[in-house]
């Protein structure tokens, strides 16, 4: 479902760039109801669409940007009684606050190589498009502004503790937008194509890199359902060792992405699970074998204790803990 939301957001943002003007503002407001990262884009689009003095344009931008924000908090309040319900829920699921210095590497390692390639080529395509036109184009300018704003907002989200496995998905709206830039890059081979076929060719060609990015996400969603079933099957074993205290996750650091799912299906608080911290004492360790390791991430070894094989990986239980269990 999350990938579907990001896919729809990607389509809305690309449509906003294609439409331009106040139509783009309306479309981006819809995108802002799905992803808060789109809120600044609403203001940027309104600024570009508004005529008049700078003060007038800034005022219009601020008013437009607050429309999706107001709708978002209103829905939160009507359904939960808390205007910041989404923020508070994210804080409860956050793993930890990461230092700013580690975020660039952490984010890059979370992106597939083809995603980085699409974003880079798309940026070049939009840049060349603006240079060839030699005049301001609201859609292309909005795309390049999104190229700056979106990574900054995702970086902030990452610092608050989003899961490493979700980085690729968080960048999907930007990636979808940059596929249009890839189309513009290829369609600018000749001036004739730019004048007569540029827009249609850009849309057609952009389907190729977008498909390359979307297919793994769709298959990942299927894999996510399999992971859900595996965690559900492993839940009784994890629940059984609850009296032994906190569970250390070992293997690859990406395993922490499953903490909310493990917590939900076992009925244990998320604070009971963490990636193994050197020097800290644990009585139980779990290796999550559902994700491959990626370069740049930490690894931790499974202690040499008696093990119980679960559907998501081996669960090592210290002799002291095992002796205390019924």
What can you see in these coordinates?
Helices cover 64% and strands 7% of the residues. It contains 14 helices and six strands. Strands 1, 2, 3, 4, 5 and 6 form a six-stranded mixed sheet that branches. Helix 13 links the parallel strand 1 and strand 2 (273-275). It starts with a helix and ends with a helix.
Summarize the structure.
The protein has 326 residues and is an alpha/beta fold.
Q: What pattern of helices and strands is seen along the backbone? A: HHHHHHHHHHHHEHEEEEEH
* Biggest pleated sheet: 6 strands, mixed
Task: Tell me the Rg in angstroms.
Answer: 23 Å
The pLDDT mean sits at: 79
What is the tally of beta strands? Answer: 6
Question: Any low-confidence stretches, pLDDT <50, length ≥5?
Answer: 193-197
Distance between the termini: 40 Å
Q: State the shape.
A: elongated
Oligomer: single chain
Task: Outline the fold blueprint.
Blueprint: H1 2-19, H2 21-32, H3 39-49, H4 54-80, H5 85-93, H6 103-109, H7 113-133, H8 138-159, H9 167-170, H10 172-187, H11 191-196, H12 198-240, E1 247-252, H13 259-266, E2 273-275, E3 284-287, E4 299-300, E5 307-310, E6 313-317, H14 319-324
Parallel strand pairs: 1-2, 1-3
Antiparallel strand pairs: 1-4, 3-6, 5-6
